[in-house]
Amino acid sequence: MAEAHQKNHDYHIIDPSPWPLLASIGAFVLTFGGVGYMRYLNGGSLNLFGIDFATPWLFFIGLAIVLFTMFAWWADTIKEAHDGHHTRVVSLHLRYGMIMFIASEVMFFVAWFWAFFDASLFANEAIQASRVEFTGGQWPPVGIEVVDPWHLPLYNTVILLLSGTCVTWAHHAMLHNDRKGLVSGLVLTVLLGILFSFVQAYEYIHSPFDFKNSIYGATFFMATGFHGFHVLVGTIFLIVCLFRAMAGHFTPQQHFGFEAAAWYWHFVDVVWLFLFFAIYIWGDWGAPLAH
């Protein structure tokens, strides 16, 4: 009995974190506010219980809640790691969580690839409402001038491949406790990520087609635009890792925060390769190039 009593005292209940609940509230407000914001931009209304929610404020309030929750929750996670609470089991579950998150992101991009291939492979399908009207029965649609894949898109492909090499260098440097190599690799990766975003922004500004009134433009900008957003998120992720590396947070034995960022960055690289070959090369084949 005494031994069983002692075993019971070996376990303690951790106070439940408020962050999951706050994250759920923030996500709801952000989503609902986003719908209201779009109604507001279109001059519409969103009436519920006699209140018009067509306003931008709910969206920004939800965004602020989500960003605060992300900062506070991850700060707690880092503190737990420094306090020694990340046992082998906890570390394994953190890895499972990141793997599941990346898997969900894969399915997110599958949706945009599905939309692109559905429109491109069946450009003359009569049963699709207005499909032929918007494509002219061919892909790329009639009248569309496309971006030269061997210019800025190829340049950005090289940038991302180089950034993947740099983050791998940083990872191996950390495993060998080479702090200088870790910081240098992360700095180069961050700079390349920022350069990619600037090049893509320049490409968008000078794009020969628009997002609206074109099924080609809609599928192109949704797929490449969301990838660009993921590059921005990954760059921020790596900037945080850079500051943590400079503060001496990572060790060869405990560095999952950086490892997760590296996984995410490699995922972003792979998605871009699919985008480059599917949308820029195959999807633009035979269309006139913009000058």
TrEMBL record:
Entry protein name: Cytochrome c oxidase subunit 3
Top EC group: translocase
Membrane topology note: Multi-pass membrane protein
Family: Belongs to the cytochrome c oxidase subunit 3 family.
One annotated Gene Ontology cellular component of this protein: plasma membrane
InterPro entries membership: Cyt_c/ubiquinol_Oxase_su3, Cyt_c_oxase_su3_dom, Cyt_c_oxidase-like_su3, Cyt_c_oxidase_su3-like_sf, Cyt_c_oxidase_su3_a-hlx
Compartments where found: Cell membrane; Membrane
SUPFAM superfamilies named in the record: Cytochrome c oxidase subunit III-like (SSF81452)
UniProt-listed Pfam families: COX3
Transmembrane segments: 21-41, 53-75, 96-117, 150-170, 182-202, 214-243, 263-283
GO biological process, one term: aerobic electron transport chain
Record EC number: 7.1.1.9
